[in-house]
Specification:
Length: about 270
């Protein structure tokens, strides 16, 4: 049975994060001026979202010289009994067509995400190991880890300052993993005070150096939801960045639970 609990994206929370790349509005009264950093991040994590979503997605990889590689995907996501599920399937170009990724995030506790990828050339589904979650997703600047969701209980959080982005006042929150040794040593998030949603996030590598910056480029109102439809992940160390832009977004389309299986990865959306 589906729940109306938020679909997570660590794109912007996301450990980024995000990568459903959809953040909803939380009523302003749920976070007060005296709220702790943990309360703020929990409110972002628990933001209201559609029961399910389907969309087209354009991923553009841009190198230091400005050369672009464009990839087209389809994505579906839904929540079932405390498990947020997502599938992303490449439609083009031909060399990646049919490659599909599935993520299950657990909303009840801080259990790590389960992830799988289907590689048509091998005609098999491979489970992403915990050691492999820091790897690049299909040559992009998003890691597999960025495509899941990270529960606030997995980190410690402090408000380090307040700052405005495009005139919008934000809490700036530093988050560090309670158990060291993960993909990042820390992240810093800019969370809108008015809308309790992430607008920007910095990711720091294991040595503590700035690695990547995720920025929200566009938001659109869809029904009662405010959705992030365009983001940029900039790898400052490699001078390479990846944009994600959603189109033809459909919400509450009654996506079925049986759509999120290893078999469905192989059959395609």
């Amino acid at each position: 049975m589906k729940t109306t609990q938020a679909h997570r994206i660590r794109a912007m929370v996301l450990s980024a994060s995000f990568l459903v790349l959809a953040l909803g509005i939380v009523p302003a009264q749920t976070v007060t001026g005296t709220a702790s950093a943990y309360d703020i991040m929990l409110s972002v994590y628990n933001r209201p979202q559609p029961v399910d979503m389907a969309a087209d997605l354009t991923m553009t990889l841009i190198d230091a010289r400005g050369k672009e590689r464009v990839r087209e995907l389809k994505q579906i996501s839904a929540s079932f009994d405390g498990i947020d599920k997502k599938i992303m399937e490449f439609q083009s170009p031909a060399d990646v067509r049919g490659t599909a990724f599935m993520n299950w995030s657990y909303t009840v506790d801080s259990r790590s995400d389960d992830q799988w990828i289907f590689l048509p050339a091998l005609n098999r589904v491979r489970r992403i190991s915990s050691d492999g979650k820091g790897d690049s997703f299909m040559g992009s600047d998003f890691s597999y880890d960025d495509l899941g969701a990270r529960h606030p209980d997995q980190d410690t959080h402090i408000v380090i300052k307040t700052e405005s982005i495009n005139g919008e006042a934000c809490w700036v929150i530093e988050s560090k993993p309670r158990v060291p040794g993960g993909t990042y040593s820390k992240t810093i998030s800019w969370v809108s005070k008015e809308r309790t949603m992430g607008l920007k996030r910095e990711f720091y590598d294991r040595s503590g150096a700035l690695l990547k910056v995720l920025t929200v480029l566009e938001l659109k109102e869809m029904g009662k939801y405010l959705m992030i439809t365009h983001t940029d992940m900039n790898n400052v160390q490699k001078k390479h960045h990846t944009t994600m832009q959603f189109g033809s977004v459909r919400i509450d389309t009654k996506v079925k639970d049986e759509s999120f299986t290893e078999r469905s990865l192989m059959k395609g959306l």
